[in-house]
Write a structure and sequence with these properties.
Radius of gyration: 25 Å
Strand order of the largest sheet: 13-12-11-10-9-8-7-14
Helix content: 40-55%
Number of strands: 14
Shape: globular
Structural class: alpha/beta
Number of helices: 24
Distance between the termini: 15 Å
């Protein structure tokens, strides 16, 4: 990417260190509590452009509602006579010091979150405002020492050509959000914010991690050609966006999208799809301070169904737990939450929460083409139990005389290896399956997908992953039951020929990748994809698979 530098200096908020008398402590507590409520309210009303942003907002809200942190701040004010600003700075500062001393990279990534929340509280207490990135008037390459989560959420993606920071890495919030917005980013360039003057011409290569300052004409010419090639490619993909997805030999492929809210922008992004293959219901639980009521859920599901009708909307029931915690829902501490009380397991534990969601779904089903699927299923027994709850809810709604439907297709997310091994038996209990590749890879390879140190072991193109998918497709196809993929692997253009060659005919992808995926599908015939899939199944390592794909896919398929 070529552009001029905008050097961003984050507003620094310095707390007053004032000791107050006994008569003033109650007032300081009132100030702190009001600031906390105000910041929490502002975060709850923010709409993240991506799932990654929504998760960050929920993380910040969880800090604000953390009782232990709040109690420590009360102690600093009421017992140690510190003013509200000083108390916030002291308590949050201690947390930051503890995180900095940790050797766990996941904990270190939380420093940006806790720092951000502290700064927002201090600015509210001081009546200050940050002159942030929302004020940019033209596209620039953003240069900063560090970008905090609130910075990335506030910025307008259309005004950001690229991002360069001194701090951070591939797992930092900045990098994750930049990737989700298709913004090239480079992190870890020492002293870049001081070395580059505002308005300096820069060339940023997000693939190699190289940044050129005041590049010579030859480098500029090279990157201008790359940009033109990329722009042409994007234009072609835009043209394919409105077309049905078909292989070069005429095989129709269903291309659905994954959605994480009922925001108008998200619903509009599904306009060129065959429906919604994954409607994540977690936003209703994570963007609020209470369990969503039946009416709140009914309204949201109805809006999505009406907007997409007559196309199907596949609602995934509550997938809370592991990395998605709710501050208002007391969950036990777990040493390994990814293998613990989460998703359908939590629904069985919190049966009334599950019943409320299913009641809302059944009532909303009257207004469109609803499908429901259960996540984190590990056995036939799980399916039977979930269907029993659904049947109970249907009888209850019938007795109450409310309009509803419960005859919609019911499916499962295949994420647990036991389900892959028992695909044939599970297929006899449900109407369809959707493969959640993110968790399937994690469990299949025993590699925590949220741990940066495990990145080398979390291998999306490991032959075992494709063999498991092949097994799942075979088990369901034998009974005439459809299978789709809704994980990140389905949005990867390189994996698409293999997935289709294994027998998939439905993909559910990120809306931002829909045109690209349709373009890739159109460029190959089914016979070629089946041949490639069989070759991959016989391989023994990810390195062998990726080398094979680089050799056998045309340059346009791998760009």
């Amino acid at each position: 990417m070529v552009g001029t530098a905008y050097v961003y200096k984050k507003h620094t908020c310095i707390a007053d260190h004032i000791t107050v008398g006994d008569a003033e402590t109650a007032h300081q507590m009132t100030l702190y509590e009001a600031a906390s409520r105000k910041v929490q309210s502002e975060l709850q009303h923010l709409e993240g452009e991506t799932d990654e942003q929504a998760e960050i907002l929920q993380t910040h809200i969880s800090f604000l509602t953390d009782e232990e942190l709040a109690e420590e701040i009360r102690t600093e004010i009421l017992k140690n006579s510190k003013c509200a600003q000083w108390a916030v700075e002291s308590v949050y500062g201690q947390v930051i010091e503890t995180l900095e001393a940790s050797s766990d990279p996941v904990f270190k990534e939380r420093i940006a979150d806790i720092t951000d929340v502290r700064n927002q509280l201090l600015m509210e207490l001081r009546g200050e405002s940050s002159t942030g990135l929302e004020a940019l008037s033209r596209p620039v390459i953003l240069v900063a020492e560090e970008l905090l989560p609130s910075d990335t959420i506030a910025m307008d993606p259309s005004k950001i050509l690229g991002i360069v920071t001194e701090r951070g890495g591939v797992t930092a919030h900045m990098a994750v959000i930049a990737k989700s917005m298709a913004i090239p980013a480079v992190a870890g360039i020492p002293r870049i914010a001081d070395a580059v003057a505002p308005g300096t011409e820069l060339v940023l290569d997000g693939q190699t991690g190289i940044v050129y300052s005041e590049p010579d004409p030859a480098i500029l010419d090279e990157y201008e050609k790359k940009i033109q090639k990329y722009s042409r490619k994007r234009q072609i993909e835009k043209e394919y966006l409105a077309k049905p997805a078909c292989t070069s030999d005429g095989v129709r492929i269903e291309t659905k999208v994954n959605l994480g809210s009922t925001d108008e922008r998200e619903l509009a992004a599904a306009a060129c799809s065959d429906g919604v293959g994954l409607f994540r219901s977690e936003f209703l639980y994570m963007n609020t301070d209470h369990l969503p009521t039946e009416e709140e859920q009914f309204t949201a599901y109805k809006a999505a169904l009406e907007a997409l009708a007559p196309r199907p909307v596949t609602l995934r029931t509550m997938d809370i737990g592991a990395d998605k915690q709710l501050p208002y829902l007391s969950l036990p501490h777990e040493e390994n939450p990814a293998l613990g009380m989460r998703a359908l397991r939590l629904c069985f534990e919190k049966r009334e929460v599950f019943r409320t969601q299913l009641r809302a779904a059944c009532r909303a089903a009257v207004y469109g083409n609803l499908q429901v699927m259960f996540p984190m299923v590990s056995s036939v027994t799980d399916v039977i139990r979930a269907r029993q709850v659904l049947a109970e809810v249907a009888r209850e709604l019938s007795d109450e005389g409310l309009p509803f439907r419960a005859d919609f297709p019911v499916g499962v997310m295949v994420e647990v290896p036991s389900l892959a091994l028992m695909a044939h038996q599970i297929a006899g209990q449900v109407d369809f399956a959707s493969i959640g590749t993110n968790d399937l890879i994690q469990y299949l390879l025993a590699a925590d997908r949220d741990n940066p140190e495990m990145a080398a072991y979390y291998q999306s193109f490991h032959p075992a992953v494709f063999r498991a998918i092949h097994m799942i497709i075979g088990g369901f196809s034998a009974q005439g039951k459809p299978v789709s993929v809704c994980g990140e692997l389905g949005s990867d253009p390189q994996s698409v020929p293999i997935l289709l060659g294994l027998g998939l005919r439905t993909l559910s992808v990120s809306p931002a990748r829909l045109g690209e995926i349709k373009y890739r599908i159109a460029g190959m015939g089914m016979a070629q994809m089946e041949q490639m899939a069989q070759a991959v199944l016989a391989m023994s390592s990810q390195e062998e698979v990726t080398a094979y794909l680089e050799q056998n896919l045309s340059p346009s398929d791998t760009d």
